[in-house]
Design brief:
The complex is a heterotrimer. Chain A is an alpha/beta fold. Helix content of chain A is about 65%, strand content about 10%. Chain C has 3 domains: about 210 residues, 3-Layer(aba) Sandwich (Rossmann fold); about 80 residues, Alpha-Beta Plaits, CATH 3.30.70; about 190 residues, 3-Layer(aba) Sandwich (Rossmann fold). The chains are: A alpha/beta, B alpha/beta, C alpha/beta. Chain B: One of its GO terms (cellular component) is plasma membrane.
Chain lengths: ~375, ~375, ~575
């Protein structure tokens, strides 16, 4: 099925990627940097918190709360503040993310059953972290409160929280499967985008064009090797994630890999489109940079697609990374059934068809 | 006489550089198109605050209390009840991504509530942990409010023994946009300072114009200055555009002074530009320079500056690395000047560090820029 | 009187440990009032030496003096330096470029108007002051580069290959301009790979592989060859076979096809009368010819290669056919309202070498690209090996071998991988591919380079590999785009020995060149100038059209261009 021309160009492209020191950078740097930076940096948990305390009460219950906060594993330091002015400065300078002010009558109010109120000030410049810290404090306040007046009133209702797919809400369980989708894009897109532009710049393009290679052979030949690289990278992650990072792999691999191939084709098509439109490697680089940012930001990785305004969700629907990220999360954590994988694959297939067709058309046109 | 001719050379080089910026599409791309894309993505595309969560309800009790609580969820501004059914059915919907949470009201809920208890179950989609945590907290808020209002109706006034009255300074509505959008300015200035400058100088090497320039009496110092000043102006221009868009389009408050913003940006651009010049002087090739700029400037600014991801939550080795990222010292200044106001006690130490970075890079740059080819 | 302005003594430069020296103990003096030529093929070390004199490269050993100073102490405003790509900012206009260099070289404001007016008149760029340098033609860029180098009158003018790829008219004008400057007492160093330019210098330094082969007046080098160079006029059919036999003859040092004749350089004491003549051409008399600088260069290198080509020996015989191998019938290409090539028509018979001669940007590449199917003609039609360009592009491509301008193989791939790829790309598989590749390796002596990156090969081997890849599938038609620009004459001889051998096998060749010498190797030539085909014929017919029997190809070209311009003006 594969004729000698097609085989020759595939082999050549593989060599070109492996032997070109610049292309090698593109091959090695993204996965490593991704794994380390994204894997470790992009935690949404809030740890090592510094909290300021202004204790105007000094009674039993304020000390109890402060002690419990200091003992929390998420809190690195409790800084004692002496005045309201100091409290304001500590927040302003970002020395602490939150400051808790215990009013003079605090312990007395608690003991008397009037209810003590802690005044909490949080740094809204880091609104996300601030909210999480506030919920930590809330929880501790509730727990201390419960011990303060054990038998006073009926216990009231409660909710039991269960987290499907990721019971202890491990951040890495989310981040690493998402990284599978992103990694494939950062390893495939730049490599494909350089392929045609590089030949143009090095002057080998004409040489290629006068050979009897057909357009589809050239495009296929240039798209397959980066897809192989993406395939290998993803496979490596599929092994490393469960073994090294303990991310559960619950879904079945066959639909996942079928979807992966469609996804890699869509990425190649997109990269090829950029490559065909660029006349230098420089332009291809800037072009892919302009493309890759929205792809990642709108993938659901940076923030859930659900939170975007409706029109933005429409834009995100044209993003293959967004669809495959769902498949990856689903296959790792949710035991996603094949029908669901398929439901998320056909949009990718449409993207692949459109980008590949368009780049073939433009490739022919740009030959002139 | 000497000074006059030096000044004239400098002026000539800067005029040339400015003309090139105005005629170069990649300068336009990096200084205006990319910043606007980034700003709009951050302003509209990224939203860390859970909005209405699509929720499934499994109502297994037909008592009045259960109905009332279900109504409370349905009426909440945090939840959007999309589906009703058994937990098993709803779980499938969750796998499909239709819903993110399931509220389970168990068979005996109304009876238990009457006795002063009543436990519900909140099931979240743990595959997105950050969202799951928010959902759990919001759900508890809805339930507690519902309980409190029932108690009030019954004439009981249960004050919680210890309550937290939380105030969020600078950003009371807790809009993540308010830190994402100003933070984008750091990325924009990094791109112009480091990536664009690296590209431009490397291009002069590739096209052979650097060779011709070096054969003239121009001094290396003049050459460096003539590259720095126009791109400083471009960086500030782009920053100003971003700031205006941030305030007008995205409604980000601006509580500091314009002067402070300009000083902060200028001092940040000093190390950023020197890094760009150093990269291009060291590599002299546009492609390699762009890759290096990406790895040493862009990615660290995105990931390690404390802009999106909390530095304090990173592993220690990575936290150590963040101290070498100039943007780490810019982000607090930017957020403060936008959201809090001028606070020179916060600005000055950060500026001092940035100035130190800049001077170190300038030194490396001068050492790398010699009047020699090869 | 002549006074030295710049000198190099015993300069050595190596790039990288263990690399062969780029310059190996070179001495050179540039004097005022003399045109000093720095001549040699690409990679000889010309640019490195130029950069040393401009103070941009430090020698590892030896010393550089500019007006008695070291490069660090010298007054840079006294040097005019034009690097290879002219050092122009393409996104600045002509006058912006001039002003920039005037400021950098410290030309006083009050002198500026007069100086600019003079330079613009001198370079004939006054009409184009507002045009971006990037939009100028090659010849105009070169003149602007010169103007920028001259913006404040230097004592030393360094010109690094100023005439590459520029049309002969501009080249001649540039030469005249620089001559004039020399007359005013400037010291000029002009580097070039065109050996014919060397003959016109007052004094020449001939570099090869970093070493100085010769220095002195060019006449002293060609003088001793007087009486050893001959032309033998021969019919087209027997020219190449005669040349092949002659080159295999011990008495012959070098030889080329030269228009309607074969041109031979005899070894010292070799007798031209003994050179075998083809049967039936007994009347062909060797006529003494004027020795050229290139003859001297080849002689210095110990003579050219033999006349037999292993490549041709192993090549298949192309069956004779009456249909022309290449036919262009009114080919026209327009890009928007710009006509890049207009009404080009010619045919190339089987077993002929046909040349497209013209300056860069004249339209020869456009014509060439239409014929190999890279561009679709706006009007007209063409055929290659009997296949119509419009309907049978794939067949056209399969039947031609293409060697692009400059080195355009995959530099990061090894020699072996390049060969494998091109074999596959031309549909050779399995045993056929192995045989063809094995043959190529043997013919071109590539064995010891097989694992090496093609980009790192010595120039001559790059040339061989490019040819090897182009003919792996033994095509009946070969397209050569500027095949030998910049290579040393020995490599060029070897290359043409292969081509001549293939032509004898019945292969037809289309070659583009801006290199006048190379045009002489063709059976017929079309001159392309400003998108028009202004003349077609054998080299000797063209020379005759120029009206002077003793004219060089360049003279002929210039005369024809001037006639064409005159017709254009009249119309």
């Amino acid at each position: 099925m594969i004729n000698s021309r097609l085989r020759a160009i595939i082999v050549k492209e593989i060599w070109a990627i492996i032997r070109d020191p610049r292309a090698r950078i593109l091959l090695i740097a993204p996965p490593v940097v991704q794994l380390f930076l994204f894997g470790f940096a992009s935690t949404m948990e809030v740890d090592n918190i510094r909290i300021g305390v202004l204790d105007l009460d000094g009674g039993r219950w304020s000390r109890e709360v402060i002690e419990r906060i200091g003992g929390s594993p998420n809190v690195a330091e409790v800084r004692l503040l002496r005045s309201d002015a100091e409290m304001r400065d500590a927040i302003d300078r970002q020395e602490v993310i939150a400051a808790l002010r215990f009013p003079p009558q605090f312990s007395a109010d608690v003991a008397a059953g009037r209810g003590g109120v802690i005044g909490g000030v949080f740094d809204g410049r880091r609104s996300n972290a601030a909210q999480i810290v506030s919920s930590y404090v809330q929880t501790i306040a509730g727990e201390v409160g419960a011990t303060a007046v054990p038998m006073r009133a009926p216990p009231g209702g409660q909710s039991i929280v269960r987290n499907f797919f990721n019971p202890t809400l491990e951040d890495q369980w989310f981040v690493l499967p998402a990284l599978v989708a992103i990694l494939a894009s950062v390893s495939v897109l730049p490599t494909v985008s350089q392929s045609v532009a590089r030949e143009r710049e090095l002057g080998t393009f004409d040489q290629l064009m006068v050979s009897p290679l057909r357009t589809y052979e050239m495009l296929t030949g240039k798209m397959i090797p980066p897809m192989i690289i993406g395939f290998v990278n993803v496979t490596a992650f599929m092994i490393i994630l469960p073994l090294v990072f303990g991310v559960p792999l619950t879904g079945s691999l066959v639909p996942f890999y079928l979807a992966l191939i469609v996804y890699l084709a869509a990425l190649s098509g997109l990269g090829m489109l950029v490559s065909v439109l660029s006349s230098t490697q420089q332009q291809a680089f800037l072009g892919i940079f302009v493309v890759i940012n929205p792809l990642i930001i709108l993938s659901g990785y940076a923030s859930p697609v659900d939170n975007m305004p409706g029109w933005m969700q429409g834009v995100a629907a044209t993003n293959p990374v967004m669809w495959f990220l769902k498949i990856s999360e689903g296959t790792f954590l949710m035991a996603m059934p094949a029908s669901e994988v398929l439901a998320n694959t056909w949009p990718i297939a449409i993207i692949a068809a459109v980008t590949i067709t368009l780049s073939a058309v433009l490739f022919r046109q740009r030959m002139e | 006489m000497k000074a006059a001719s030096s000044l004239r050379r400098l002026r000539a080089m800067m005029v040339k550089e400015t003309r090139q910026i105005l005629r170069d599409p990649s300068a336009f791309l990096i200084a205006f198109v990319l910043p606007m894309t980034l700003l709009f993505l951050m302003g509209f595309g990224v939203n860390l605050d859970a909005s209405k969560t699509r929720t499934g309800l499994s109502l297994q009790d037909d008592g009045a209390a259960a109905q009332s609580l279900a109504g409370a969820y349905a009426g909440s501004r945090y939840f959007d009840i999309r589906a009703v059914g058994s937990v098993r059915q709803l779980r499938e919907r969750m796998v499909a991504g239709d819903i993110r949470a399931i509220i389970v009201i168990p068979p005996d809920f109304s009876r238990d509530t009457a006795r002063g208890g009543g436990t519900i179950q909140v099931i979240t989609d743990g595959s997105v942990p950050n969202m799951a945590a928010f959902i759990a907290a919001y759900s508890e808020g809805v339930r507690a409010t519902w309980e409190a209002s029932r108690a009030a109706d019954a004439g009981r006034q249960p004050t919680p023994p210890i309550a937290l009255s939380a105030r969020f300074w600078f950003n009371p509505e807790l809009a993540s946009r308010n830190f994402l959008v100003p933070g984008s300015i750091a990325v924009v200035m990094t791109m112009i300072g480091s990536l664009l400058t690296a590209l431009v100088v490397a291009r002069e090497w590739e096209r052979g114009t650097m060779e011709a320039i070096m054969a003239t009496p121009v001094r290396m110092g003049e050459l460096l200055v003539s590259k720095v000043l126009p791109y400083l102006a471009l960086g500030l221009g782009s920053m100003a555009l971003c700031a205006v868009v941030a305030v007008t389009v995205f409604g980000v408050p601006f509580r500091g002074s314009v002067g402070a913003l300009i000083v902060i940006s200028t001092i940040y651009l000093y190390p950023a530009l020197c890094l760009g010049l150093f990269i291009s002087a060291a590599f002299k090739n546009q492609f390699v320079a762009s890759q290096v700029a990406l790895l040493t400037a862009f990615l660290p600014t995105m990931l390690l500056s404390g802009w999106i991801f909390e530095i304090s939550s990173m592993p220690a080795w990575l936290q150590g690395l963040t101290y070498a990222v100039p943007a780490r010292y810019l982000i607090p200044q930017l957020l403060t000047v936008f959201l809090a106001g001028d606070d020179w006690l916060l600005f000055l130490p950060n500026m001092a560090v940035l100035f130190g970075f800049g001077s170190l890079l300038l030194f490396l740059c001068i050492r790398a820029t010699r009047r020699r080819i090869a | 009187m002549a006074r030295p302005v710049a000198s190099a003594r015993g300069v050595v430069k190596r790039f990288g440990e263990g690399a062969p020296p780029a310059l190996d103990g070179v001495d050179l003096v540039v004097e005022t009032g003399r045109m000093t030529g720095l001549v040699g093929p690409d990679g000889a070390g010309k640019t490195t030496l130029m950069r040393m004199l401009a103070g941009l490269v430090d020698p590892d050993a030896g010393e550089i003096r500019i007006e008695g100073c070291t490069p660090d102490e010298m007054d840079r405003s006294r040097i005019g330096y034009m690097p290879q790509r002219f050092g122009l900012y393409e996104d600045l206009s002509v006058s912006e470029n001039l002003n920039l260099y005037a400021d950098l070289r410290g030309l006083a404001e009050n002198e500026r108007e007069e100086r600019f007016a003079m330079l613009l008149r001198f370079t004939d760029l006054a009409r184009f002051q507002q045009r971006l340098a990037g939009n100028l033609s090659g010849g105009m860029k070169q003149k602007l580069g010169l103007a920028c180098a001259l913006v404040r009158e230097p004592a030393l003018l360094l010109l690094d290959e100023p005439s590459v790829g520029v049309d002969p008219v501009s080249r001649r004008e540039l030469w005249a301009m620089v001559r004039e400057l020399v007359g005013e007492g400037m010291g000029v160093l002009w580097s070039t790979a065109y050996l014919d330019e060397a003959e016109k210098c007052d004094s020449v330094y001939l570099l090869n592989e970093g070493g100085l082969l010769y220095d002195g007046p060019p006449g002293d080098l060609t003088g001793p060859l007087e009486g050893r160079v001959f032309r033998i006029a021969l019919p087209e059919k027997s020219r190449r076979s005669t040349l092949r036999r002659a080159l295999d003859d011990e008495a012959v040092a070098d030889g080329t096809v030269h228009g309607d004749a074969v041109r031979l350089l005899m070894r010292k004491g070799g007798d031209v009368a003994t050179v075998a003549k083809p049967s039936g051409a007994d009347d062909a008399k060797p006529v003494p010819a004027r020795p050229r600088f290139e003859d001297a260069f080849v002689d210095l290198l110990g003579g050219g290669p033999g006349g037999s080509s292993d490549l041709a020996d192993a090549y298949r015989d192309i069956p004779p056919d009456d249909t022309p191998a290449i036919a262009a019938d009114g080919l026209t290409k327009r890009f928007g309202d710009f006509t890049a090539a207009h009404d080009i028509r010619f045919t190339v018979g089987q077993g002929q070498v046909f040349g497209l001669l013209g300056p860069n940007g004249a339209g020869k590449s456009t014509t060439f690209k239409m014929l190999c199917g890279l561009l679709t003609p706006t009007e007209g039609s063409g055929a290659v090996a009997g296949y119509d360009l419009r309907h049978a592009r794939a067949e056209v491509r399969q039947s031609l071998g293409y060697m692009a301008q400059k080195f355009s193989l995959y530099g990061d791939l090894s020699v072996r991988q390049n060969l494998d790829f091109f074999a596959g790309a031309y549909g050779l598989g399995g045993r056929r591919a192995r045989e063809a590749i094995g043959q190529a390796i043997e013919t071109f002596h590539l064995q010891r380079y097989l694992g090496q990156n093609a980009g790192g090969l010595p120039l001559g081997f790059k040339q061989r590999l490019a040819l090897a890849c182009a003919v792996l599938h033994q095509p009946p038609v070969i397209f050569l785009d500027e095949p030998t620009s910049g290579v040393d004459p020995i490599v060029r001889r070897e290359f043409w020995t292969h081509i001549n051998g293939l032509v004898e096998r019945g292969v037809s060749v289309l070659v583009t060149t801006h290199f006048m010498e190379e045009a002489e190797y063709c059976d017929r030539i079309a001159l392309i100038y400003r998108s028009e085909q202004i003349a077609t014929g054998t080299p000797d017919e063209l020379k005759a059209m120029a009206g002077d029997g003793d004219a060089t190809m360049e003279d002929a070209f210039i005369a024809l261009i001037e006639a064409s311009d005159a017709r254009r003006e009249a119309a």
